[in-house]
Amino acid sequence: MVPNFGGLRVAVVGAGETISVEGVLRDLPDALGFALVLASPLSPDAVQAASRAPVIVVDDRISIEHGRIYVVPAGREIQCIDGQRGGDPESRGRAEYWHAPARELERDDELRRTREQLRVTVEQYEVALDELRASNAELRAINDELQYAGAELERSKHELQAANQELTALNQELGAKVDEISRAHSDLQNLMTSTEIGVVFLDRELRIQRFTPRVRDLIHVIPSDLGRPLDHLTHRLECGPLGELAQVVLDTARPIERELRGRDGRCYLVRWLPYRLIEGQAEGQAEGRIEGVALTLVDVTDLRDAVAARRRSEQALQRVEERLHVALRSAPLAALGFDAPAGTAPGAVDATWGFLIGRELDAEERAALPMLAAGHADQLRARVHQVIAERTGQRAELDLEIGGARHTFDFRIEPTASGATAVGFDITPSKAAEAVLRDAARRKDEFLATLSHELRNPLMPLQVALEATRLLDDDPRQRAHSLSIMERQIGMLTTLVNELLDLSRITQGKIVLERAPVSLAHALESAVVATRPMFEAARHQLRIAVPDQPIEIDGDFRRLVQVFTNLLTNAAKYTPPSGHIDVAIVTGPASVAVRVQDDGLGITSDMLPRIFDIFVQAHDAHGRSQGGLGIGLNLVRRLVELHGGTVTAASAGVGHGSEFTVELPLTAEGAPS
Question: What is the pLDDT of residue 534?
């Protein structure tokens, strides 16, 4: 810091300072704000060379001023006297002086520089602040412009979105229109390709614009002929140029139609029609603008033949109606006509005409309908009344008494303009057949259930025998017993399967008899041997009556044994224990009969006609069957019929036993003498 002496700032640098005086002088500015007094060994010239301020050598008393450098020679004492106070030097006394060390000068100089830098910085800051203020104002203006531009962009965005949605919708509509046009074009192309009608489209100059493939059969045209005049092409029709009539259509705007014959002998309907634009009609015109001619060629040969055939059919239909009228009078059907306005009571509906089994009904019969069973006449009138009211057809099964017998008729009742018509057909045979089918279905279900039971019965002993053999493998007696059981059960299964196979072969006509002369007594003996265990187990008494003379027939020994075995098995099965069974062979002039008679359960009268049907089984008094599948007797009948014989069954009823008789033809050699 530079001290202030009476308002004068003076800096004194002593000679003993360690700083470099030359360095201090070089750093001084041009305009000093104080006076510098140097007490240094440097010469005034060296000081002047190192500094830009004026240098003054102090030899005596001198006034000190700012902005100068004062050099005090070595050995001199420096005194500062305040000149402002006045008076002589002695009276003023010696003023104290400040000795400025070098580091104080450095601090002052650094402080000066710092202030200068601070001033420059402040000026720069103020300039930058002004620039920032100007920039801030510009930024605010730009921000306002950007906000305005953003709002404009947002509005433009909404407008663009709306326009985009409209364009999307328009694009979809255009796409749909394009698809529709494409489909229409495809339909037109397919129509022109697939149609059997020849079509040629001509412009106003009668040049070919388009044609269908069918045209090539009559006009010599190829795809490269598009644009050529029609009259330049030849055709196969027996007429003049086709273009002449096309020009007439253009001039008169009226269609022309001709029936022409081709050179192939077929007949064609040729039309020349004005080709009108659809746009003209859409603009409100009654008819579109004519832009050409459409030429169509239709082969009507088949149509003419069909018309002729229709005439012939009508004539034939008339003859058929006459025959139908005759058939209606004689056919097994019933037809009734009812005329009744809507709102008529059901009891007041009467038939106005009618036929029944070839006979026309009189007025009394049409009113009372006595041929219908009790209650069925009222039911028919109610149905007719409902059909007339609802105008919807119905069906009804009604019973009629005809010739003392009841017949079921299937009536179809349909509404007519004046009432209703009821036509019924006799379905009595169909109902009977339906009952037979239901019974056959029931017997089939029983057969399947019985078959499963019969197949399971031998399997259980087989399984037990196998388990016993496995557990007692080292016991020979038990093994032999198990093998006997298995052999017996397998035999039962084999017999059951063989019967099924035989029945299937006979049904399909695949069985072939191995015919040879067969001794009837020998076949019967084999059947008795096969069934003897059953008789012994039930303690039956079996009596056989065989003629002394041998009787031979032409047949299959194995199949005959099968027939007699089945009959003896049934007799043993349906006879209570300790019963009696008689077997007899009775000869006739040309046939022999084998009768098997027992005193067992017997057969009911309703079962006798069906006893030989498949899957039919007789039951005891408690409704239980005696086992089996119900195919044995059916198989017996089929095998006997294959031998040219017959089999019959007879019984006096339940508890009176039954008798089966097999009658077979005799050969000339086998007849008894």
Answer: 87
